[in-house]
Design goal:
The protein is of the alpha+beta class and 452 residues long. It folds into 4 domains: 193 residues, Rossmann fold; 79 residues, no CATH class; 34 residues, no CATH class; 124 residues. The protein is built from 14 helices and 19 strands. Strand 16 and strand 17 form a beta hairpin. Helix 10 crosses helix 11, helix 10 crosses helix 12 and helix 12 crosses helix 13. It is globular, with a radius of gyration of 25 Å. The chain starts with a strand and ends in a 5-residue tail after the last strand.
Length: 452
């Protein structure tokens, strides 16, 4: 059997841009920057030009042309550099993403027409929920060409946990699963079987794609080292018998050489040096966190408590908390959280609100028991289109239908004015702040099975 894995960037081009915004009006960009320019800014390429902007615990060094343009825009709008922020709305906000221009390019895949090989799409940096409309359009375009996608793989569910080496490692691990026929968990193979292929083709346009040829057997060796002995022996025997192959195709912008192709035979016995990029995965103290686990921990256990920390500091907190969880409990809550997010999105649409806050904690007030619970707060503002109160019974009906193994407790509803403590003089308070009201619904979600 043969399969083909396409990184989605080889088939679709989305013109997402990073916004520089005034934090007092974050929904309107002052300047938009291309992703490539922002990566140079974030990596300090322009540091020598001395145009520093601090935001959320990180320093960004702007090139002089953008910095001068920014100063002009701020002056025209009575803004100042102290209020500058970086916004990723075009990567995170589904409503905005749905309206961004994108272009589908099927030239890299049409050679598979009239073939029976399996086709997969790897979404390296796209979140399924936010990019659903774009992905549906891609799938429709492929169907028109007679091409059917067997599955989409989302290997970096959270936008904030993205590193090029991590992404490449996750791609290699995904390909290895289909080359040996067993799924992985953390950094070892499990006895859960998956479709095995004799030959796997990868198509990717990252500049370092071809490195995968040199690294795949080293990653295999690393994963086998942590795999249970019985399964390890089975996998080694299968590799010796079937001799699976990986064909790596690096898609380029060079019209004279659009594709660089290299093939490697999967072999656990090769004596290969440890590649620098993957030393982190050889470190026994490091545990790779599955993207959905990461998303739950970041949103419910860390993010709201550490909003002033940098992304790297948040990442460290996530990893620390991950190690403190029992796997069964984390898996249970992670699966539930995906449905909870869908339910609360539906509720927030009815409220006219996008402000949802989570806090996972130990709850000691349920009939004298100490159990884990997810605390949820939904805020809706008068100034942002509040549509009306939603009752506890409505919440319970949604939960009962979608999450029959959970219950709601400690439901509260409140109405408050906006916080005006930052204003020293009452006359400085803008009318839209003074007259604003915030309606909050708070409640706890518990698993019935945890209640004794």
């Amino acid at each position: 059997m043969i399969s083909h894995f396409f990184d989605i960037d080889t088939l679709i081009k989305i013109n997402n841009k990073v916004w520089i915004v005034d934090k007092t009006n974050p929904n309107i960009p002052i300047i938009k920057i291309s992703t490539s320019d922002f990566n140079l800014i974030k990596n300090g390429v322009y540091k020598s030009q001395g145009n520093k902007v601090d935001y959320n615990g990180q320093s960004f060094w702007l090139p002089t042309d953008i910095f001068n343009k920014l100063k002009v825009k701020l002056k025209l709008n009575n803004g100042n550099l102290g209020n500058i922020g970086i916004s990723m709305q075009e990567f995170l906000n589904k409503d905005i993403i749905d309206n961004i221009d994108f272009k589908i390019n099927l030239n890299n895949i049409t050679h598979l027409k009239n073939k029976t090989d399996d086709i997969y799409i790897i979404c390296s940096k796209q979140n399924k929920k936010n990019y659903e409309t774009v992905l549906n359009k891609l799938e429709e375009g492929l169907k028109e060409e007679g091409l059917k996608i067997k599955n989409f793989y989302y290997i970096s569910e959270t936008f904030y946990n993205q590193n090029d080496d991590d992404i490449r490692y996750n791609k290699i691990k995904l390909l290895l699963q289909h080359l040996v026929g067993y799924r992985t968990f953390i950094n070892k193979f499990t006895d859960e079987e998956i479709t095995r292929y004799d030959t796997v083709h990868l198509y990717d346009n990252q500049y370092d794609t071809i490195k995968i040829v040199d690294e795949v057997n080293q990653v295999l060796k690393s994963i086998l080292k942590k795999t249970d002995d019985g399964l390890k022996s089975v996998i080694k025997e299968d590799i010796s018998e079937y001799k699976p192959a990986l064909v790596v195709n690096q898609i380029t912008d060079n019209d004279l050489n659009k594709k660089i192709t290299k093939k490697v035979i999967i072999d656990y016995s090769n004596l290969i040096k440890t590649f620098e990029s993957f030393k982190i995965f050889e470190n026994n103290s490091y545990e790779e966190i599955p993207p959905n686990f990461y998303e739950f921990i970041k949103n419910c256990c860390v993010f709201n408590l550490y909003v002033d920390k940098s992304e790297s500091e948040i990442d460290m907190e996530v990893k620390k908390i991950f190690k403190s969880f029992k796997y069964e409990e984390l898996e249970k809550w992670t699966k539930a959280f995906e449905d909870i997010q869908d339910i609360l999105t539906e509720i927030s649409d009815k409220l006219g609100s996008n402000n949802i806050y989570y806090d996972f904690k130990s709850y000691g007030a349920y009939k004298g028991q100490e159990i884990d619970a997810l605390s949820v707060r939904i805020d809706a503002e008068k100034n942002k289109g509040f549509k009306g109160k939603i009752s506890k019974s409505y919440f319970e009906k949604l939960i009962k239908r979608r999450l029959p193994n959970m219950i709601i407790d400690d439901y509260e509803y409140s109405e408050n004015g906006e916080d005006i403590s930052e204003y020293e003089d009452i006359y400085d308070i803008p009318p839209e702040v003074k007259n604003n009201k915030i309606w909050s619904s708070t409640f706890l979600l518990l698993f019935k099975s945890d209640i004794h």
